[in-house]
Design brief:
The chain has 367 residues and is of the alpha/beta class. The chain has 3 domains: 5-145 and 233-249, HUPs (Rossmann fold, 3-Layer(aba) Sandwich); 150-221, no CATH class; 256-358, no CATH class. The chain has 14 helices and 7 strands. It has helices at 14-26, 44-57, 74-81, 93-107, 147-153, 159-169, 172-183, 192-202, 204-215, 239-249, 286-295, 297-306, 319-322, 325-347; strands at residues 5-9, 32-38, 61-64, 112-115, 134-137, 260-264, 267-271. The protein has a 5-stranded parallel sheet. A two-stranded antiparallel ribbon has the order 6-7. Helix 1 packs across helix 10, helix 8 packs across helix 9 (204-215) and helix 11 packs across helix 12. The two termini are 28 Å apart. Bound molecules: iron/sulfur cluster.
Length: 367
């Protein structure tokens, strides 16, 4: 398989953990290198998951930025360097400096395939790296390819090339139908996702074989392989599958996902943490800050200490204000209301799958 590397980033979240277990069991011959970018600011529950995974997988490479710094954690090193300027959704230097840069250093210039755990029940793309020698593959989805690959393969410019590959590989009983779709140009009514789904509906493996051979005409890392077992993958894994994989493997689900009950004014609700990442992550919802306050008061206090020189984790509200009893009460009541609305919507089947961790997405921190 040449010099191509296979890498898989373990974020500390459930989906990347399940993907690592899945890849090890389903593709034992693929030499996958597992890595984790350590910020020094993870919850103990996340660290426990990584320790257990390390035993299960037989090794995870830990990448740690600013290793020689006198500061206690990489985060504190970069925070100091930025003059206490806290990261935010608009200024995400934390992911860039502590995770992406380290991952790109780890990979270097070697062509690499990065396996990403976006699930089959999610509709989103993962930002992994813009380096051309790193190609993302999504084994849990029906479409394993990244958006850029699909856009190039299905571009009208490549119509004849893709059609010739279908001509070559399609079995007789599917030739006419697949060729008709492959030869239909993209238009305002027949756009990328429509064409993609039409081809996948006809035959996933065949589509993957065509794309794999198309990639051989490009510089993409997958195109440099003699064979790629993932092109025969037709699995689609959803949230329940992820929990099952974690439980069956003995690695277990990170404890912060477990809902904890609380009561306000006689009403009951639950809280938990919906995603991995730094304990102070600015992407967490208000109710998750309350969870941190009540379940990890030391970490809440530490997060508060980072708020200085006018910088706060949440826009317009300091953690000192958020921790006031009346504010905590209000946040809990709001959460209960949201949970009741969600239950009602689900029982009316207004929505199929409401997932709290579908927003604020980052492949490097939360998968
Ligand atoms: S988890 Fe949040 S705070 Fe930590 S690096 Fe990722 S985005 Fe930044």
């Amino acid at each position: 398989m040449g010099n191509v590397r296979h890498i898989l980033g373990i974020s500390g979240g459930k989906d990347s953990a399940a993907l690592a277990i899945y890849m090890k069991n389903k593709y034992p011959d693929l030499k996958v290198e597992y890595y984790n970018s350590d910020t020094g600011c993870e919850l103990a529950e996340t660290e426990l998951l990584i320790t257990r995974l390390n035993s299960y997988l037989g090794g995870i490479k830990i990448l740690r930025a600013a290793e020689d710094s006198p500061e206690a954690t990489p985060f504190e090193h970069f925070l100091k360097a930025s003059g206490n300027f806290l990261p935010s959704p608009q200024a995400r230097w934390c992911t860039q400096k502590m995770k992406l840069a380290e991952m790109e250093k780890f990979v270097g210039d070697v062509p690499s395939i990065s396996y990403v755990g976006i699930r089959g029940d999610e509709d989103r793309e993962g930002y992994i790296s813009t380096k051309p020698n790193i190609q993302a593959i999504f084994p849990f989805r029906r479409n394993i390819w990244s958006l850029d690959v699909i856009n190039k393969a299905l571009d009208n410019e490549n119509i004849e090339l893709i059609a010739s590959l279908y001509e070559q590989f399609a079995p007789e009983d599917k030739k006419e139908e697949t060729l008709t779709i492959a030869r239909t140009p993209l238009s305002r009514t027949f756009f990328y996702s429509k064409k993609l789904n039409a081809l996948l509906d006809l035959d996933v493996k065949l589509f993957n074989k065509v794309v794999f051979n198309y990639l051989k005409t490009t510089d993409y890392p997958v195109g440099q392989l003699d064979e790629f077992p993932l092109i025969d993958n037709e699995d689609i894994l959803v949230k329940d599958d992820i929990f099952r994989i974690l439980e069956d493997s003995g690695v277990g689900v990170p404890a912060y996902y477990n809902p904890i009950e609380f009561e306000v004014d006689g009403k009951k609700g639950t809280y938990s943490r919906s995603r991995s990442g730094c304990y102070f992550c600015f992407f967490q919802q208000k109710i998750e800050w309350v969870w941190l306050l009540e379940q990890h008061p030391d970490l809440y206090a530490k997060s508060m200490e980072f708020e200085k020189d006018g910088y706060t984790w949440n826009q317009g509200e300091s953690l000192a204000d958020l921790a006031k009893p009346e504010r905590v009460r209000q946040i809990k009541l709001d959460a209960i209301k949201k949970q009741e609305a969600k239950r009602a919507a689900m029982s009316c089947k207004l929505i199929d799958n409401l997932d709290d961790d579908n927003d604020a997405f980052c492949a490097n921190c939360f998968i």
